[in-house]
Structure formats: structure tokens, C-alpha cells
Amino acid sequence: MTKATIVVGLDGSKAGARALAFAKRQAKGIGDCTIAICYVIEWSPFSFQTPEENEQRHKRREEELKMAHERVLNPAVDQAKAEGFDIVGVVKHGDAADILDATAKAHGAMQIVVGRVGARGLKERVFGGVTGRLAASASVPVTIIP
Amino acid sequence: MKRFLGTGLAATALSLPTLAAAQEAVSFDQKVNDIFSSSTGWFVNLIFMSLPGTNFPWIVLWLVVAASIFTIYFGFIQFKAFGHAISLVKGDYSDPNDAGEVSHFQALTTALSGTVGLGNIAGVAVAVGIGGPGATFWMVLAGLLGMASKFTECTLGVKYRNEYPDGTVSGGPMYYMTKGFKERGLPGGKVLAVIFAIFTIGGALGGGNMFQANQAHAQITNIVGDFSGVITGVIFAAVVFAVIVGGIKSIASVTEKVVPFMGIMYVLAALVILIMNAGQIGWAFGQIFEGAFTGLGVAGGFVGALIQGFKRAAFSNEAGVGSAAIAHSAVKTKEPVTEGVVSLLEPFIDTVVICTMTALVITISGVLVMDPATGTFVLNEAGTAIKTVDGSSGVGLTSSAFAAGFSWFPYVLALAVILFAFSTMISWSYYGLKAWTYLFGEGKTTELVFKLIFCFFIIVGAAAQLGAVIDFSDAMIFAMAVVNITALYFLMPIVKREMNSYFERIKSGAIVKHNN
Fold this sequence. Notes:
heterodimer; A: alpha/beta; B: mainly alpha; Amino acid/polyamine transporter I; two-stranded antiparallel sheet; 21 helices
């Protein structure tokens, strides 16, 4: 049996921070537990782009990754490390629900913890929020932090 | 089509004689026309020259012969790799670690937004109006063959693109001409590249800009009545300026989302009309096949149908022109062949699907006048085209054919034409820019100079009746094909090597799908 892992979805919001705090409490309870923080940059391979956007895409992607690491992921990882947690961080492009579940699978995680993203607006009503879709499709238990 | 619209524009300009600006524009046009006709007429005549004893332009034969050679040389790649192309576009072979990079789907749709446009709506109507339904058969055949040309140029485009330290990429025929020729130890690559780049700039300003602005203005005047083209030109130029100079991404991304939607809506509307007339579909196909070989009494008979079909396919999907190689080269892939395979879907969607839909709707709608006694088409008074119910041709013919199914459709069509024109301009501004920076070097100032010239030409194109200038720019686009296909003949062994290696690795399981 591999080490217990909890995947946490982080998006720079307060709900995300609460999710991480919850995961830390869980990890403490378990004892020997890895926390995998996952930051998802929303992106679809099926969007439409101009030739110029395509040309710049690789550069933009690097910038997006750098920004996510600098602003959100690295501070969270550093702090958790200082607190004595075993922690890893990843930044990925794609659909948040898919990526979180894929990360959980990759780490053989026991659960996914996410902050609730308020289901507002027409888009959320039509397509469903990230948390809703994750809860509906995930392969491991999902904890949604209000 | 071009002349038909040109005449409309002349009428626009002449109907406003009280406006000093319009008068100035006319005299300005006249001057530009004269200078252009006298200095470039020979070039236009050379490119569009007919083969002796026919009215078949040699440039069309050049494109069709090249497409046939590539089809045979690559072993009917367009049929063998069709399923694989769809699998690639779906992302089955994309590495999840590359998420966030340009996908095959994005490269394909970007290239498509440059080609799907007026050719599919107006060009097909011209072909069917002159060559009869039989022209559709030849158009589809030319479209199927053109898929092999796209495969060749786009594979090379990705293989020889430039990747810069900052992560941006530049690709296209200029790069495969120089690098590919060098690799094969052939001389003249640089010369070809420079000539190609010059033609590309001409094509971008003409066919990819003035011609589009011109047609969009003609569509707007059809709906709201005549007004000065300067207004349309300035508005279009301002919007294009905001996108390509101002970097206002939101306008571009709105268009990039609306254009595919328009394309899908166009095909759906055509399908609904076909379903409503399901009983006649068999008859329409009968007309297409019979007309392809007999002409069914149209001007020029069977040869007339063939010429029109080939011509429109070549003009619509740009296979062999080299423009697509620029658009496709931004994709993220380790295998250049994958993008070549994906690109062969482009002429299929553009010509085989969308153009055929237009042709079927025109045939079924009954806007072409037929003699009920003989079952052949009735020619117009001049004897140059098939008589239509309301005397329309070009976009007008497509519009009235669709109106037979949905009375409101002409409004949607007008909007589609304007948006297609806009997205084609954005695409060609990029192709032109790549050629420009190839010649004059990359840099903010040189790029800005080209972008400003591009915006200025939008106003010129919309405002003026510049038949000679537009003829010249059209000739430029096809001159691109002369240079590009010459290079493709020399470089096709490289593509074959890449292709064989790639498909062997697919077979042996060295390349596998990522999502199962």
C-alpha cells in the first residue's frame, strides 16, 4: 500500500485556502500522509484561436505556469513544508474536474478536497460548476469545503 | 464573381456623384487602375492565361496536376489516413503533458477560418451558374485531390518551422524552401523563398484583404441600400486595427467563435433544406453525375462544367498555395506528419462538404431555369450562364436558393459573409506579416509598418472599384502556388520519408494513443 495521499484543488481563492487547511487537519490525523496541491489553469484544446494567438501560445503557456507557481503554488508549498507537511505541487492546463481526478489517480490518492466555487451565473447553471462535475465523476471520495 | 461585385461597387460610387469624396475616389481609382493595368496587366494575363484553344487557365491545371501527383506519390494518403486525421483532431494521440499548447484542433480551425468564406458561398454559385450542377462533381474531385497537396505543404511547414528562444514559432513555405533545399543540397531555395514572400504580401493585401472588404461592402449595400464604401472600409479597418495592432484579443476571439458557429449553421440550414426536399436528392445527384459528363446543355458543355468545378475548388481551398502551411505550423507536435494528416481534412471540410452543400441547395431549389420538355438548362440571353429565376448570380444566387427554403436566410447569409470576410482578413494579415518579417526582419517597427499598410488597404478595397488591382492580387495568390508547388516537387521525398517512418511506428506500436 502506497502512502496515503490527499489531493487539494487550489485556485488562489479563500475557498481554496480553506480546502488546504482542511486537508492539513486530515493529514495530521492520518499521520503519514502526502498532500498533493493541484492548480488548474482552465484551458480547452477545442477552443478557437487566431494565428497570432497560436504563434504565441507556447510562450503564454510558460508565463501562465510561472505565474501560477509564483503567486499561488510556491507560497502554499513553502508554508506547508515549514509546518512539517509532506507536500507536492503541480500546475496543469485543462478542465479542473478532469485534471483533479487524473491527479488523484496518478497519486493513488484516497480523497480529493476542494473549496466550493459558488454556482453563479448562467454558464454555471448550464454546464454545472467544477465542484459539481467533480463530485459527479470522480473516482475517489470528494470533500467539498463550503 | 469578382467582376459582378466590382460592377456593383462602381454603381455605388457613381450613384453618389454629389459627394465630393466619392468623386475624388473615382478619379483616384481611375488613376490607380490605369497605372496598375499598364504595368501589371502582363503578369495577370500570364497567370490566368488559358491553355491554347481552350478557356482553361493553365494555373488551374497546374494545381490539379500537382494534387494528382501528390495523391499517387503518397499512395492515396487522403483516404488511407482519413480516420487517423479525425483521431488526431480528437486529441487521442496528444500527450497530456502538452496540455495548454496549440492542439491539432486549434491549428486546423485556425487554418479553416482563413479558407472557409466567400469561395464557399459565392464561388460555388458562380460555378453552378455557369457550369451547371455537373460542375459539382469536378469540384468535389478537385477537393479530394487537393487534400494531398495540403498534406505535403503542411508536413513541411511544421518540419522546417523556426522555433525562437522566447518560445514563439514561425513557419511556412519560406522556411521549408530555404532549410529544405539546403538539406537536400539544392540551390535556389533562398531565391524561391524571397519570391514566395513577395507574392504572399501581394496576395495578403489583395485577395486576403481588398477583395474581402470589397465583397463585405457589396453585401451590406444589398441589405441597407447604397452608401459610400469609405464608411465600411473605415469601420472594418478600425476593427482590424484594434485586433492586429491594438491586440484587442476579445474581438478576435469573438469572431473566432462566431465564424465556426456560422459555418455550422450554414451547413445545418443546407441540410434542413435538403431533408425538406428529400425526394429530390436522388434527382439532384443524377443531375450532378449526368451534367459532369454531358453538361446538360450548359455553356461550354462537359468541358465547361469541368473547368468551373476545378477552378472553384482551387480558388476555395487554397491547396498548394502555401498559405495553410503558415497557419498549421504553430501546432505542438513532435511529428510533422501528424499536422500534415490533420490538414488534409481542410479541403475536405471546405470543398467536399460545404461547397457541395451549396451546390445541392442551388440545384434542388429550382432557381436555375430548366426546359421541362428537354430536361436541359436554359441559357441567359448572353448565352454565358444558366438563366436564373430572378436573374441573380454569385452570392445573390446562393441567397435566393436558400431563401426558397427559409425566407429570412439572406440576412443570416449577409452576416456570415461579413464575418467570413473579417476572419479571412485576420488570417491573411498574419500570412502577410510572416512574409513581411521574413523579408525585412522581425521587430516591432517593421511589423507595425506592415499592419498599418494592411489596414489602409482595407479602406481602399472597400471604397474603390479597383478591378485591376484586385485582378493583380488574385494573380499574386496563384503565383504563390507556382513557387510553392515547384518547391514541393523537390521536397516531396522528405515528406515521404517522414510519412513512412511515422506510419511504421504507428503500426509497430511505438506511437500509441494517450487516452484509452
